Amino acid sequence: MRELCVVPEAASHQDGGCDEARADTRTSAATASATSLPSGSSRSRTDFDIPKIIAEKIRSKSFFWSAELIPGTSPHLQALLEQSLKDIANHAHNAPSFVSVTWHESHLKEIKVGGSTRLQHPALELSKYLQQKFGIPALLHLSAGNLKRTQVVRILEGCIDSGITNILALRG
To answer: Per-10-residue mean pLDDT for the chain, 172 residues long?
Structure first.
């Protein structure tokens, strides 16, 4: 299996590659200024940096937690999701540090908009909603094993447009 390094600092490390860049990122994240937990939709995109949030919580020995949500694609799942979102809203003072959002390839839809085609997925919509409505960083799972390269590119462009920068890319 190949490893793809997406740590921005890797470009500056000619010989050390990903491992050296990751070590530098962990060090700089651990010494970074405090990143507060979500307090509403007023967070900037830089506040959604999950590795920095975790590093700060560990450095300050603060309690933190995360949750994983499944987009509501059936009436039962939609009801569970809505209850989970109500619980998060009711406990905003103790909100999760971030929320993982699962991805199911079968839920990807192509929508015709004018002369172009747009990709839509409930996980992307839920991730965007969590960040915009609750100010909670979202970690979008992206199972890309059976997707075409053009689809992955369009999905990632949608992530950028939505402010989703934390992506757990999976092959299958």
So the answer is: 34 40 33 31 65 95 92 88 88 88 89 84 93 93 90 92 93 76
Contact between residue 127 and residue 155 where contact means Cβ atoms under 8 Å apart: no
**Nearest residue to 149 via CA among 125, 124, 119:** 119
Distance, CA of 102 to CA of 67 (rounded, Å): 11
Half-sphere exposure of 4 (CA within 13 A, CB side): 5
Strands (E), 29-154: 66-69, 98-101, 109-113, 116-120, 138-143
DSSP class per residue in 13-27: -TTTHHHHHHHHHHH
Tokens of 143: 């199972």
Gap between the Cα atoms of 58 and 21, Å rounded: 20
Which residues are within 8 A (CB) of 138 and not within 5 positions of it... i.e. 6 or more apart?
A: 48, 98, 99, 100, 101, 126, 127, 128, 130, 131, 164, 166
CA–CA separation, 50 and 40 (whole Å)? 16
Distance of CA 74 to the CA centre of its chain: 23
Q: Tell me, what amino acid is at 128? A: K
pTM of the predicted structure, to 2 decimals: 0.69
